Amino acid sequence: MSPRNILKDQQMRKERIEHILNSALQTMAKRGIDSTNIKDIAKEAKLSVGNIYTYFTSKDEIFSEVLRRGQTMYGRTIAQIADMDIDPREKLFEISKGWLSNESNWAFTIMLQSIRTNHAVSTEIKQAATQRFTDNLEPLAEIFRQGQEAGGIIQGDTRQLAFYFVSLIQGLTLQLAPGYEIQVDIDPQKIVRLFMEPETVVSTAGLFEGNNDLSYINKKMFDR
User: Fold this and answer.
1) C-alpha to C-alpha distance for 15 and 89, rounded to whole angstroms
2) Are 199 and 156 in contact (CB under 8 A)?
3) What is the pLDDT of residues 54-78, one digit of tens each?
4) Using CA of residue 171, residue 173, residue 177, residue 179, what is the dihedral sign?
5) Cα dihedral angle (14, 15, 19, 21), rounded to 10 degrees?
6) The domain at 64-218 falls in which architecture?
7) Superfamily of structural domain 1-57
8) What are the pLDDT digits (tens) for 142-158?
9) The whole model's pTM is what?
10) How far is residue 131's CA from residue 60's CA, in Å, rounded to a whole number?
11) Domain parsing of the chain, residue ranges
């Protein structure tokens, strides 16, 4: 096989795997972990069951890979934003906006919470997902540290604040399931202001209206 054909074959394989993983995410979010099987994933992906088994050996392997890739990409995204030379409050705003505007994040959030609490899921998968979640708090905690040092962000344990921030956004994300949305506007600015020193909130007019277009980073925060 020529090098060109090898590259084409590798690209097709990569695209097929991505398609299967995306289909698995949507299926699990709709049906739940226990009720989802390989046949359901194949139906969502419009592929044969045999085709699915060409790339994955089991349902657990598929779900484990969806989680691993999504959590890894999320962690990299937060770390990249943490390194940017902009106001830390803007960083939190961009994270909130990016997370809540991603149409697939509600499904990923449901999957993450379900796998960590489902008795049918292996301990190994649960522990790996929990460890990645914990590790991903660090770059977010760094943003809170930056905000405390610069002024404007409330004092306190930065890892704890990062945990509160993530938990709040995840809770709101669960309200965005298509067809079942709660009819209340979610404002990323107001989310960030919950973590700001009260005396600085009134002086932030225009803070979140700058020219920092981070859409190229966060528009697909969980894309693999």
Assistant:
1) 36
2) no
3) 999 998 899 899 999 999 999 999 9
4) positive
5) 20
6) Orthogonal Bundle (1.10)
7) Homeodomain-like (1.10.10.60)
8) 999 999 999 999 999 99
9) 0.84
10) 18
11) 1-57, 64-218
